[in-house]
Amino acid sequence: MSIKCLIASLVLLLIHGSAGQKCNARSFQRLCVTDGSNVVLENEKLSLTINKAKAQISALYYNSPSDSSIKSTNLLRGGSGYYIAVISVDGKSVNTGPDVGEMKIRQNAEYIDLAFINKNTSNWPIHFELHLVLEKDSPIFYYYTIHKYLRDGYTASQLRWAIRANADPFKYYSVDGKRAGRMPTQQAINSAETLQDWTYKLSDGSVYSKYQQISNNEYLHTVFGIYGDRIGLSVLQTHKEWVSGGPFKQSLTTHTGQMLLFCEHTGHYGTPDVVPTKGWSKVYGPIGFYLNDGKSLSQMYLDAQRQLKEEGKKWPYKFVTAPEYNAQGRGSVSGTLNVNGSPNKQWAYLILTEPHVDDPQFETATYMYSTVAATNGRFSIPAVRPGNYKLQVIAKGVVGRYIQTNVNVESNKNTNLGTINWQEERHGKQLWQIGVPDRDSGEFKSPPGYPSPIPNLEEYRKFGTWLSYSKTFPNDPDFTVGSSDPAKDWGYFMPMIKTPGFPAQLKMVNITQNTQPTNWKVRFDYSGSTGGTATLTLGFAANVKAGIRAVINGKEILKVTGFDGPKADSALFRQAAHGIFRQQTVTFSASLLKAKNILEFTPPGPVSANHFDKMVMWDFLRMEVSN
Ligand SMILES: *[C@@H]1O[C@H](CO)[C@@H](O)[C@H](O)[C@H]1NC(C)=O
Ligand SMILES: *[C@@H]1O[C@H](CO)[C@@H](O)[C@H](O)[C@H]1NC(C)=O
């Protein structure tokens, strides 16, 4: 042992010794930690046993004030709390996790922070620390990680922390308060028919998929959890500065097997890999795991939402002392946002990105700070690391993005941007619009899917909506501006062939494949000048290996054979109404317009049986004419 190590060990021993805070599992007496191959971390409310070599929580006990049987139940029996990374090293894909060579204890009277440091870089060639933090007398334990660049040729496609909990007490779940109820049991899943990845047809004919339990990264739904009769374990996502893909990115939350997931990064719904470059480091989290008790699932869920608000006041958490987190030196950005002269009536997201970030959807390596403007247009983006940023604004009902560069944030100061006047991109007078620009297709008609054991699902979250497309729209949508209703007469996705669906799925519902191309129509009247130009703007909420062709009165005006970026975000098959957003704007001569017009949408080229899964998802369509 080197002198340096010896001194470090002595210091740690002294810290332990002076506080006299070694503990026995489940004494619930005070904040304490006991080192060993199994580390015990405990306070008055919680007791965790951690396998040091793998940084895995093997036991969790809660000092329940109301249920003494909970107190003696290992809430992780049959499971654990563990980290998984799906990475690629020099092009070779590897599933890995921490191989801990060192644990550092940092403690004072208020909290204990345990850092588990991955030392096997042949296993995982970055510097990786997983931290677990417990404050005194608190029913929350926190988790965060620190990743640092070590070499080129390293990319990550999935980084996540998961808890697989004891299925006996945890019978229920809540994704957002609405999607909440009894979790399908493992026996029900085991005897089910597998239809797709993590998608099961249960014996009662309903179909369960873990993708029915996704939620947006944005801050409106940031509590989810698993629950029992008198016990709750909720994930409190206090802040989302670390998320990949921006506020609209969707991630898994909880699913069968009594799983709670905290995804630092995933490729779901089209998000690209994390590709670090020299100098890269990132802190993910902290995320709180909150134990509570209550009389019902909804009461415990509401209590967790209340606790999340409290956590918001503590952000950035003082217990994270890593310089990368910069808890003490953050600034803020405020102002007022007006769109077309007044505060936007619906949500407006303000996102601060690094200057080089063109599109938050594709950003995975850096921090992004976002907020939603208040109804009076006021906004404040708190807890921003000092630096130079680009402000990007996306608002419901508004086409395009507002961009402001050179937003400087200084340590412990507020940058007031004053009043921002965003004039929406316009191309003359609007003739009509179908749908609302909001990067989501949820307002359009969904063909019916299979019933699901998850309650209160929007139709598009049900399995197999695409399998009933040919029944709902046997002749494809034919929409007449002025009399048709987007919610009934326009579909949320447009397949490239008449019977979308994997061949085995079509067989299951007795549909004979029809490989004719689809042809969607919009009919509208026009009586204005034909001297200028017309502009058609299309928003697409998702895409699977497809494109689009637009024809007006028999004349082709647009042909997109494929979109830039990810070729397939799988949003349709993973029960979502959006994946990666794209916009297409095409200008054409208004002389093509007549009194009665037919605008047709078709696939961009010949189709075949291979097009069974190709589709685009609509966000909005807008037609304008310049005078
Ligand atoms: C490091 O990880 C690799 C790959 O998992 C493994 O083969 C090797 O034994 C590990 N090395 C040590 C020192 O544990
Ligand atoms: C499909 O056809 C088979 C055989 O005729 C029948 O047993 C089954 O119920 C049908 N399924 C559906 C979904 O109509």
UniProtKB/TrEMBL annotation:
Gene3D superfamilies, A to Z: 2.70.98.10, Carboxypeptidase-like, regulatory domain
Q: Where in the cell is it found?
A: Secreted
Entry's Pfam families?
CBM-like, fn3_3, Rhamnogal_lyase
Q: Which UniProt keywords apply?
A: Lyase, Secreted, Signal
Q: Where is the Rhamnogalacturonan lyase domain?
A: 348-417, 430-623
User: Where this protein primarily resides, as one coarse class?
Assistant: secreted
EC id: 4.2.2.23
- Protein family: Belongs to the polysaccharide lyase 4 family.
What is the name of the protein in this document?
A: rhamnogalacturonan endolyase
